[in-house]
């Protein structure tokens, strides 16, 4: 089952990367124009992706479908935003503004040979390394499962 999951994950990643490139989301000029509020293309694109995913996930959950990679029912537990969400959002936004890319486009920029994509990738990897070195860095998901004791030997999982 692991080989099938890895192959499915690689396929999904390739499709995601292709879509980022095809849509122009890795183009430094598109990113810069969006961050300077000169062009709303990227925001409309992301909004349509979030809307499509939200509707699609609700339909799949209602139909009782299972997730492709982990073969578990599609389900989630809504939770209120906490300080860690706000802090993480601010840190993500700051990094996005400084580097001009988030983790998905960084991988595509490196794949396309865009120069500063390599520098940004080093920054992403350094941030992950620093996070994992932090004392007590354990997997934080699911955040709403307050009854489960964290496994001290667990490695941190950083979402892409």
From TrEMBL:
Specify where the region named Disordered lies, as residue ranges. 141-160
Organism (species)? Paraconexibacter algicola
Q: Which residues cross the membrane?
A: 7-25, 40-61, 90-108, 114-132
Report which superkingdom the organism of origin falls in: Bacteria
Record's compositionally biased regions (Low complexity): 141-154
Name-wise, this protein is: Uncharacterized protein
Q: Which Pfam families match?
A: DUF6691
Keyword terms of this UniProt record: Membrane, Transmembrane, Transmembrane helix
InterPro entries in the cross-refs: DUF6691
What residue range is the signal peptide? Answer: none
